[in-house]
Amino acid sequence: MGSAPAVLVIGGGVIGATAAWELASAGARVRLFDARRPGDGATRASAGVLAPYLEGHAASPLRELGRESLDLYDAFVARLSADSDRAIVYRRDGSLEVALTMAEAERLSAASAVLWRDGVEARWVPGAVIPDIEPNAAPDAPGALLIPMHGHVGVTSLTAAAVAGLRQHGGEVVEASGAIEVSRVPGGGVRVRSDAATWEADLAVLAAGSWSSRITVEAADPVPVRPIRGQLLQLAAAPGTVSHIVWGTAGYLVPWPDGSVLVGATVEDVGFDESATDEARLELLEMAAALVPALKHATLADVRVGLRPRGPDDLPIVGRSAAVPGLVYATAHYRSGVLLAPLTAQLVRRLVFDPSAATIPALDPARCGTL
Ligand code: GLY
């Protein structure tokens, strides 16, 4: 391999697109291809929540990786925005986890103490003070947990910027061409076959999300990811109805710069079915109105559906393949793809450019079989 490796990136979701841009900006010759169009898979249904301590009150490898990636976000967005000359929706104005019952309040106030002990700024907000922070939150809520470092990113704008940045660095994007097979090239290199063409390069990155399991990798087990459907609503509401990420036990709300509110999300094990359902719409509307009653008056603007790639232990699979030298996996990000995108892109760059670099042990593909 010369100093500018040729890399095929399979999958143009938030993980594939940001990794492709990162590689191209570091000097690789990158071709990104996607079975549809970049950003049209799970990425389009993401609310972009950046909140490692909402889903992780207790310490875990996922929470620590999420925090590490969150700490990269400011610089990542600034660099990508400048490089692509694109605006990226990005806010770090905190999350409010609202307790709707006394039992939830007790759990959250205990969690705030544990988070403080772990060095995380997590403020317990008594019910009477909630209106000062989130005026339309449920009036009877007994308390809430405010975590100021959390935020959200517009995932469509982030992914579009990554694709634009990739092109600025001479990268190529091939749409409507899904990979079918990855194999080794005798003598060195990787071959990727799609239904339309075959490409060869020094390296490949498999970042096809839920569809990773459908790509045959020579002499390897299928990637053990299964699709978990998430349905998300976009509500048109009066400006200022919601001003922070508002989180509850049954779902979450994300305020959007145009005044609309994203309401997420279902977690459904229904295979490769990307349809929206009435049942989910009703469930999400009810959950939204319980957290912020004024949302009863909002109108439904859009429903988005995505398939999250879930691995066997809910941790991503990122690292070199033992079966096909030159193949790097970057998949199985499940509910944390957007949060973990900067960390994953950085890790993929190291694995591509530095033959002595090792992956993060918790993400090693070897834990998932012969990969
Ligand atoms: N990370 C948010 C979700 O999966 O719904």
Features:
single chain; 371 residues; alpha/beta; FAD/NAD(P)-binding domain; D-Amino Acid Oxidase, Chain A, domain 2; 2 domains; six-stranded mixed beta sheet; 7 helices; 27% helix; binds glycine
Distance between the first and last residues' Cα: 23 Å
Q: Find the count of extended strands (DSSP E, 2+ residues).
A: 21
Sheet-strand content, in percent, reads: 25-35%
What strand order characterises the main sheet? 6-7-5-16-17-18-15-19
Average pLDDT for all residues: 96
Radius of gyration: 21 Å
Overall helicity = 25-40%
**Number of DSSP helical runs:** 7
The CATH superfamily title of the largest domain: FAD/NAD(P)-binding domain
Q: Tell me which CATH architecture of the largest domain applies here.
A: 3-Layer(bba) Sandwich
Task: Please provide the ordered H/E string of secondary-structure elements.
Answer: EHEEHEEHEHEEHEEEEEEEEEEHEEEH
The biggest beta sheet reads: 8 strands, mixed
Might you state the CATH topology name of the largest domain? FAD/NAD(P)-binding domain
Q: Give the number of domains.
A: 2
Derived from helix and strand composition plus strand pairing, the structural class reads alpha/beta
Characterise the protein shown here.
By secondary structure, the chain is of the alpha/beta class. The protein has 2 domains: 6-54 and 155-225 and 312-368, FAD/NAD(P)-binding domain; 92-150 and 227-309, 2-Layer Sandwich (D-Amino Acid Oxidase, Chain A, domain 2), CATH 3.30.9. It has helices at 14-25, 61-84, 102-117, 130-133, 155-168, 278-291, 337-353; strands spanning 6-10, 29-33, 49-50, 90-91, 95-99, 123-126, 143-147, 151-153, 172-174, 179-184, 190-194, 198-201, 203-206, 216-217, 226-236, 245-248, 251-255, 261-264, 299-310, 317-320, 327-331. An 8-stranded mixed sheet has the order 6-7-5-16-17-18-15-19, sandwiched between helices. A 6-stranded mixed sheet has the order 9-2-1-13-21-20, covered by helices on one side. Strands 12-11-10-14 form a 4-stranded mixed sheet, with no helix packed on it. β11 and β12 (198-201) form a beta hairpin. α1 packs parallel to α7 (337-353) and α2 (61-84) crosses α5. The mean pLDDT is 96. Bound molecules: glycine.
